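Dear colleagues,

I hope this message finds you well. In preparation for our joint manuscript, I am sending the DNA helicase (Durusdinium trenchii) sequence together with its predicted structure, so that both groups work from identical material. I would be grateful if you could confirm receipt.
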Amino acid sequence: MLITTSQEEMIGGVAPARFVFTTSDLEAYADPTVAAKMQIRITCAQAFFVESPTCENVLDATGNFPRIEECRFNEHEARLILQTRLLKQTTYSLTMKLLMPAGRMTAAENSYVFTTEYDPDTVIEGTESAIDLGYTVPHAKDPVYGNDFSQRGYITGFFWQPTLTYTSTPDVVTVFTFGLRTFGTMNTDYNIDIIAHPTNAPSSVPVTEPT
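The corresponding C-alpha cells are as follows:
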C-alpha cells in the first residue's frame, strides 16, 4: 500500500502538536459489558494528519499511555485504537505530527475536537466545543506570494559546519561560515539577519555583528 500526501497539504508546513487530556470518573472507562477496543479520535477543522498505514507519526505518548495497537489517519481525522483501556481520572499526553493549513488563520479557525470512545456510536466523552490548535501566518512557501519559482524563491535550510580549527575558547578570533539551501530563484532583493550571542565573552572583547 502506498499512501502519499499532496504538495498542497504540505504548504502550511509540518509541526508537532501535543494533546494533553485528563479522563473523568465516568464508569464507562471500566464497563465490563463492552468488548470493543477503546480508541481516541481527534478531528481537526483545518490541519491535516500525515497519512500513513502505521503509527510512525505518533511522536510521543506519556502518562503510562496504553500501547497503541493501530492508527488510522484520514486527512483531518486520526483514530488511535488502544490495546488496553485508558484509566479514569488520569492525565495523558500525545504528541503527533500535523500538517498546518496554508495562509493566515486564527487559532479558533484552526481548531480540533477530541473524543474517547469504543466506536463512533459509543462515545465515552469528548470536548464540549472545538479547542484552539494554533494560529497560522503565510510564509515563503505559501502560494499567496505566487507560484512562479523562476521569479522567486525561498530558503529551505540554514546550517553551520565548524572548521577543524574551531574553538569555543574566549578571546580567540573565529571565522564562521554558514550555508543556505534554497528553492526556486533567489534574486538580490533579500536580506538575512543573524543574531550572535557570544558565550561568556569578556567585556573587553569587541563583538561585531556578522554581515
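For the figure legend, we might mention the following. The CA atoms of residues 167 and 173 lie 9 Å apart. Residues 1-10, 203-211 have pLDDT under 50 and may be disordered.

With kind regards,
E.M.
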